[in-house]
Amino acid sequence: MASPLAGCAAVNSLLFWAYSYGKFAQTGSLDVTPTLGQIAVAGAGAGIVNSILASPVELIKVRLQVQNSTSIAASATLFRGPVHLATHLAQQFGVRGIMWGFWATVAREVPAYAAFYTGFEFTKRRLAHALSDGDSSKLGAVPLMCSGSVGGICYWTACYPLDVIKSRVQNAAAPPRGVGYIARAAKDIMKEQGVKGFFRGYTPSVVRSIPAAGVTFATYELVMRALNDAK
After folding, report:
1. Residue 139: what are its φ and ψ, rounded to 5°?
2. Sign of CA dihedral 179, 99, 21, 217
3. Cβ atoms of residues 106 and 54 within 8 Å
4. Which candidate, 75, 99, 208, 222, has a CA 20 to 30 Å from the CA of 125?
5. In this structure, what CATH number is given to the domain that contains residue 36?
6. Which domain holds residue 150?
7. How far apart are alpha carbons 28 and 121 in whole angstroms?
8. Residue 213: helix, strand or coil by DSSP?
9. Cβ neighbours of residue 180 closer than 8 Å, sequence gap 6 or more
10. CA-based angle 182:46:158, to the nearest 5?
11. Rounded to 5 degrees, what are φ and ψ at 4?
């Protein structure tokens, strides 16, 4: 828990900053409402930027989660926490050890956050037309949470097979080399488990995302309103 907890604030700050900048870069103004296509592009760009922090945070998380149950860990040191593991990876593999699986993370984050933000904005705009004459700034916490939950479902639906591949890569015995490791990991999963192997754990991930994404988006929207009102 320590790895995602410590990295949560930094990862989400970077993510939402990159997303906001992506919208502004396309519209040229904070007062212009972006199209859903522009939302998707901004989300995809935010996913790329977010991978810089998300990749090492998730690497440490997934390796600590399985260290007591894998053959890799059976013959290796059991790590006390994220700092112990990060130090070990840096000493053994250098920067490559900390950024282990970076491109697999990028491959996951691009469709994930394109869908995440588009699902949220689409639902928010629909609810705004239904509940507040099209003005999304009047939506309360519950509609915003519902919109965020839809975004969370869209996130996992868009990227789950890629998340499985990323986790496999980051739990390997050593950091991958070359540019084809994502395809090789996908091929191995298909050979061992078939198509269903790419969707193992999908349901609990979606169930978790419903409250998590709902709270994330509602908090973000309400805090932004409060900051704008305080100007």
Report:
1. -70, 140
2. positive
3. no
4. 208
5. 1.50.40.10
6. 2-229
7. 19
8. helix
9. none
10. 50
11. -65, -30
DSSP SS3 for 134: coil
d(CA 150, CA 153): 5
Residue 76 banded pLDDT, cuts 50, 70, 90: low
Helix (H, G, I), strand (E, B) or coil at 35: coil
Quick: pLDDT tens for 15-36. 999 999 999 999 998 889 999 9
94: left (phi over 0), alpha (psi -120 to 50) or beta: left
- CA nearest neighbour of 49 among 26, 12, 15: 15
The one-character DSSP state at 214 is H
CA distances from 77 to 2, 81, 167 (A): 18, 12, 20
Angle between helices 2-27 and 102-131 (to 10 degrees): 70
DSSP 84-133: HHHHHHHHHHTHHHHTTTHHHHHHHHHHHHHHHHHHHHHHHHHHHHHHST
**Helix residue ranges, H only, 1-81:** 2-27, 36-66, 71-74
- pLDDT (average), residues 123-132: 94
Amino acid at 210: I
User: What pTM was estimated for this model as a whole?
Assistant: 0.91
| Nearest-10 Cα torsion for 109, 218, 6, 43 | 20
Pull the structure tokens for residue 170.
Answer: 């980051």
Residue 30: is it exposed, middle or buried by C-beta count within 10 angstroms (0-12/13-18/19+)? Answer: exposed
* Number of alpha carbons in the 13 Å side-chain half-sphere of residue 196: 1
pLDDT one-digit tens code per residue, 154-186: 999 999 999 999 999 999 989 998 879 999 999
Q: How many domains does the chain have?
A: 1
